[in-house]
Amino acid sequence: MPSLDPGSPRVRFGAELRRLREAAQLSQAAVAARLGCTQTQVSRLEKATRTPSRSDAEKLDRLFGEADGVSFTRLYQRISARPSSPAWFRSWAEEIEPAAGVLRSWDPLLIPGLLQTEPYARHVFGMEPRTTPDEVRERTEARMRRQRILDRDDPPLVLMLIDAGVLRRKVGGPEVMREQLDNLLTTADRPSVSIQVVDPECLPGLAGAFMIAELPDGQPITVHADSPARGNVTSDYEIVTSIQERYEAIRLWAYPERVSLKMIEEARREWT
């Protein structure tokens, strides 16, 4: 699993939950019954691989009575106040994506976040309206942390479809683009990563970017679909089915991986 920041409020939330639960001689199942969730979800809270909800925090405060001055509600507020990513995205970046066994994605406009270099990501975030330098730095750092899942001993299988136009869309200048395309080629050498370039005439792909996460232990497939205002993270069967069908329709327009890598190399040579 990826390393976690021991100073983060989410890690402290989990550590305090485990400490107080064990001090009260309660099992994870007993706490789960009070939270209205599963034992696995409590385990993931303690390991900081699941982001707590406000309801979780309030119920834990009632259960433990803010023992030793610990307030789960205040810890939750610190978690939700972290500006590194929008609140709606945190459930994906901190809970869904790290647990996925297979990740499929489509992006018609940019290099996918999991494959972005730091200069590329910084420039993308820097162009957002009304974004401060501190927010750009924090969001860039958060994006780099997301990529740690690729370095795990058990990385997910990552299958990425990218519109051909992305290779020639200037983000940050020629040097940034050369480094970014070099990174695509290097990452594609990993046995767990597949990158395919999609013909720009692929009309089914114009609806927007999305990711599909296949989760272990019989958990439902979850998708994240982009929009200009906010993304949508859901496991709703109809929405997931629709996104999966669109992914397959786009994949029909994808060049074979060997051809795709040659296209990336060609575009890289043009950024001089």
TrEMBL record:
Domain HTH cro/C1-type, residue spans: 17-70
UniProt-listed SUPFAM superfamilies: lambda repressor-like DNA-binding domains
CDD domains: HTH_XRE
Gene3D superfamilies per the UniProt record, alphabetical: lambda repressor-like DNA-binding domains
Pfam families: DUF5753, HTH_31
Superkingdom: Bacteria
Protein name: Scr1 family TA system antitoxin-like transcriptional regulator
Organism: Planomonospora corallina
